[in-house]
Amino acid sequence: MYSSLIITNNVYSWGLSWLPAAMTSIPKMIMIALAYLTLFAVLGLFLVLMERKVAAWFQLRIGPNRVGFFGMFQTIADALKLLSKELTGTDKADKFLYNLAPYFLIISSLMALAVFPFSQNLQAFDINIGIFFLIAISSIGVIGVLLGGWSSNNKFALIGAMRSGVQTISYELSVGLSLLTMVLLTGSLQLSEIIEVQKNGWLIVQGHIPAVIAFMIFMISGTAETNRAPFDMVEAESELGAGFHTEYSGMKFAYFFLAEFINMFIIAAIGATVFFGGWLSPFGITDSIPWLGVFWFLLKTFVLVFLMMWFRWTFPRLRVDQLLTLEWKYLLPINLVNIVLMAIIVWLNFTIQF
Amino acid sequence: METATITNNVKSEEYFINMGPQHPATHGVLRLLLTIDGEIIKKVEPDLGYIHRSIEKMCERDSYQQIVHLTDRMDYLSSHINNEAVCLAVENALQLEVPERVKVIRTIIDELTRISSHTLWWGVMGMDVGALTSYFYGFRDRELINDIFEETCGARLTMNYNTPGGLRNDIHPNFVKRVKEFIAHFKTKLPEYDKLLTGNIIFKKRTKGVGVLSKEDAIAFGASGPVARGSGYSCDVRKYHPYSALDKVTFNEALHTEGDSYARYLVRIQEMWESISIIEQLIDIIPEGNFKVATDAVIKLPKGEYYQKVETARGELGVFIISTGTKNPYRMKFRSPGLSNLSLLNHITVGGKIGDLVATMATIDIVVPDIDR
Amino acid sequence: MTNEELKELVTTWFSGPESAHLEFTEEGSQFLNISIDPDYLHELMSWLKTAQQTRFDYLFCLTGVDWGKELGVVYHLESTIHRHILVVKVQTSDREDPVFDSVQDIWPTANFHEREVFDLFGIKFKGHPNLKRLFMPEDWKGFPLRKDYEDEVNMVVK
Q1: Model-wide pTM > 0.90
Q2: Residues C135, B372: C-beta atoms closer than 8 Å
Q3: What is the DSSP string of C77-144?
Q4: Taking CA atoms, what residue in A is nearest to B26?
């Protein structure tokens, strides 16, 4: 069911006055879509800059500081440069699939962004199978990767795409199972319900031990899911080629690049929502001011994003077979045991409630 | 590992992949032709010569002071030690006794060069296995050493500070003070580096058991330097054929026996500690005296053959001069440590994976201009 | 082993030292030099590696030399057990098609070094599995380190 701010409801009722009922929802949907596209672009810009600044801070240097105050407009400059690049393509590439591949990734990221609750009543799509929807959508992204690698007609790109696909599919399991552990506490898959339950204390506190384990597994699998270091053997610079996006240039490359950052944001947002209370403030101090919910949500998400960036700039890479061993031999059994543990705790009412 | 038939006539094929010559992980312009089957390497064939500058031919027409200048550019990360090799060969041939001051200063700058080369190696090693931040930390410390060299020798990389008979100039008055400051600073940094990479479990998983080289193979393939010492072959030229002031100092030879990439890594880290210890023993006792002994303007070596071994950061460098009594050498051969170390790459990486190849190459630590000369 | 003992030992390996043109010299060099006929090179090298008293298992320098009229190779050997050093020299006056035995089967390190000597001097090694040029491109004509090598484009002669 839709639940949105007063603005869109006003547009809806205004439209009802002079358009037939069936068509009045269209301007509303267009408005929401445009808002999310803008959010996607701005977030992408900001995240790339944040990555560069954080990397520079770890490496004892300054990072971009020329273009705009504190380097704010660096990413816009980069985007403009990418726009002006020639869109090269290979002769033997499968033209249709080659052009289609980036869009899979963007569409899946946008769809995932749509379900997050930014604050009380500020959510585009509050579906009753929220978490399940999120996990299902992230599987669509894999198609984009494999298509990109296959249609480039390039040995390296194909190897990279295969590796990346295997990695993503394996780690989706762990992401799903660790989220399932938390659903045991809430009893509902709907995201706004999950946040309602957290008014009695954040889920990571309510579930204590199994929740902490689930969070750690979630962060590891989430990092692996988005092909970020230490799991980025696929697109590592010291290895062969650049992975599945070797043959892409210009704007299409920018799509892949942005999609990776947005995926990182999505994983962090899921983590913030399910484990740390989403838009709720700690101890409920500002729950009466709904707009501040956006601030808390973004703060928590960016802390988790910073954590993922910290991983990237500190750890060496895992080899591909070590990566898969980690998932199938270690994370998956731990996950399954953790679910049973959480089930026992919920059944015996050992959760911590405030 | 067998290639072909598995069951039901499903066959997997081998294919070629080119790594280099421009490649972030090959430490120079080196082209490797890999034959791989899936992820397993079947054959590695290096293709050299991209930076061949015919140094040996140029030596046949240059005077001995000019030859020193050419050797800077071979293994540019231990350029001072290369220079010293030629100067020692010439001085031994002429039976020239250099002042004690020269010997001590040469050894101190040798060990500083070794630390600088190993710090760069550490940074690049981290970058090759994926810990991208270590590159910056390694270069930051190397900058401090480069500053010391710039003040005393005049250049940061190709120092050309040695000349047959001694040094070109005396050391700068600040030299001793700056070296002491650097040593004090560096001793706090090495344990930090240890914690960052050496103890990291992902790093250990990437390097333990990878690229194993047995002691017999190390000797058979002519390996030297940390590559051989990581396999248990004790071959430090500074111990067996000491030169300059090395007979005045006591230090341990870094030796490990496992022969895998982790062992070679630990050998180099330990070598840095040993170099610090050598510098500390010598920095306070630099004797007074001349920085140079007068030689003829045109140096002519007596007829004969002369061989000098030194220990660079990469391994054992040999300088072989055949002289007929004229002012140019008749034949000058540089025995490069990198060529022998590279020849064992095929032997130890076959059967492993591509990620292992990158980790192994990082620990063998070749500098391609050294091989190509 | 001292140089005297080495000389005696090596002489005992060859029934007729004159036919092998075996010569020992110590002048003009820090180490004992052995010169030998190319036909007996492989035999001498195998003896040097395997004999208990010598055990020269570390070949650390393989140099090609153009002696003016002859082409030759100089081998520097070291023993990791006894820690003594020896020099072995061979030469041939055949400049058109010089051939020596490859010692690659005795010391695998010789593989790349013999390729380098072939590349720069044109000396072929019998029994080498992969005798191609090492530094110069595959189709280069001529052997750069020979004394009679001419190249108007690239060489600067003082």
Answers
A1: no
A2: yes
A3: EE-TTT--EEEEEEEES--SS-EEE--TTT-TTHHHHHHHHHHHH--EEET-TT---SSS-TT--S-T
A4: A238
